[in-house]
Write a structure and sequence with these properties.
Number of helices: 8
Structural class: alpha/beta
Number of domains: 2
CATH topology of the largest domain: Alpha/beta knot
Helix content: 25-40%
CATH architecture of the largest domain: 3-Layer(aba) Sandwich
Largest sheet: 8 strands, parallel
CATH superfamily of the largest domain: SPOUT methyltransferase, trefoil knot domain
CATH class of the largest domain: Alpha Beta
């Protein structure tokens, strides 16, 4: 079936090429761009890129630079800037995911998919029903790994910023971080709540704080604390979703409601 004319206009050779180029984050930007460290190794050794090849360099602040390689080695790659434009992969709503710590390596999956879908910040939370409770040393290592996952996911999906992985915090501390007149707070509760499409605050805010439980969800006392803090109880339907499925479904719906999907 032939594509309609309106859609055909959006599929130009430029847009197709733009997605094909490798993407890197770099803050060392002046008249040219200097990429060092593991990204330089990746450019030279893994991708085998050479003089004249094209790459997208993102400054990490929402600007993409179309660049051409001048020189490339395992120690550094220098690129000339051909064009600058705002990153198209950044949503216009700042979504923070407060995710109660799941078991095993499920958080790796949650971080990756949350970044792909548009989350700007992910904060691991310890609630009453969390089975996984890492000590300080283990928690720090986990956050470092999740930050690396966030960076790789940002490169892959075309984000203009690398989302922040926050430090572990208690459930009460997490509730204390919520606030602000331009922020909508959503608390996903397995015992019921409003449908996301029926929450008018979501269409008027610039920030959304999302709270999702671990295996077993939240205790009644935690739900009461969330309501007292001003969060809106919400539901993702009558089916009980796994703790790694819920954030993916929630962020996808929220991005759609705010016209970011």
């Amino acid at each position: 079936m032939k594509l309609n004319e309106e859609f055909e206009k959006t599929i130009t050779s430029d847009t197709v090429e733009g997605w094909r180029y490798p993407r890197f984050f770099c803050g060392n930007i002046a008249d040219t761009v200097l990429v060092t460290g593991s990204d330089a190794v990746h450019i030279s050794r893994v991708l085998r890129m050479k003089k004249g090849d094209i790459a997208i360099i993102c400054d990490g602040c929402g600007t993409d630079l179309l660049c051409r390689i001048i020189t490339a080695s395992e120690s550094a790659a220098e690129l000339e800037i051909l064009e600058k434009k705002p990153s198209e992969g950044e949503p216009d709503v700042y979504l923070r995911l407060f995710q109660c710590m799941p078991k095993s390596d499920k958080m790796d999956f949650i971080v990756q998919k949350a970044v792909e879908l548009g989350a700007s910040e992910i904060i691991p939370v310890i609630s009453k029903r969390c089975v996984s409770r890492p000590d300080d040393k283990s928690a720090a290592k986990k956050c470092e790994r999740w930050q690396r996952i966030a960076e790789e996911a940002s490169k892959q999906c075309g984000r203009g910023r690398i989302p922040i992985i926050g430090d572990f915090c208690s459930y009460k501390s997490a509730l204390g971080k919520y606030g602000g007149s331009d922020t909508a707070g959503i608390f996903f509760y397995e015992c019921g709540g409003a449908r996301l499409n029926d929450i008018p605050e979501l269409r008027e805010c610039s920030r959304i704080d999302v709270f999702i439980g671990s295996e077993g969800g939240f205790e009644v006392s935690e739900a009461e604390l969330a309501k007292e803090a001003g969060l809106i109880p919400a539901t993702l339907g009558k089916r009980i979703l796994r703790c790694e499925t819920a954030p993916v479904a929630a962020i996808a719906v929220l991005m759609n409601i705010t016209n970011n999907m």
